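hey so u asked for the seq, here:
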Amino acid sequence: MTEKQPASRIRRSPEQVRTAVHQAVIDLLSDPEGEGLTIPAIAGRAGVNHTSVYRRWGSLEALLADTVTTRLERDSPLDDTGSLRGDLISWAEGSVASMGTPEGRALVRAVVLSMPNSAQAQDERGLHFRRRMRSIEQIRERAEARGEEAPPVEQILDQLIAPFYIRAIFGIDVPTTGYPELLVDRLLGGVRGPDPA
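ran it, structure tokens below
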């Protein structure tokens, strides 16, 4: 196996450092023959000093939560389609695109399963969850401003968000077509079509 060399340490902006560190996390999670997922290994892969990583994130748990949430926010833009159904489907399609990849599934599993059962880890998981739910709240608020009735956040969590996380955690592939529409129509009480292939 050809050993991967860490990126050279050059002066970069804080956002460039954040992007490089996030990518290093994804690369290490995706490489079964690579180093273990530790802050020194992540820093080496990203080409930054490990003390910089500790200063910015404080812990591996915080870094993992920030990485997965940032990726999901990137892949699930808050498109205004003109309807609650359309907005939720668009959001869910982004989740399919992100969690449907091996890297996306590995990130979610790392956040949910790899963190110790400590108060700090629970806080980081809670922060990740609240960041994800902010986008759902915005979709709900936009729908209500249009005069549409939106389901409670807890119902959206149970019927739309949880299925993606369960599939990611257990490595179950997301159906290739129709899955976001199926979940959203079940959530909104629409007519249920056939299960997607």
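The first helix runs from residue 14 to 30. The chain has a mean pLDDT of 82.
lmk if thats what u needed
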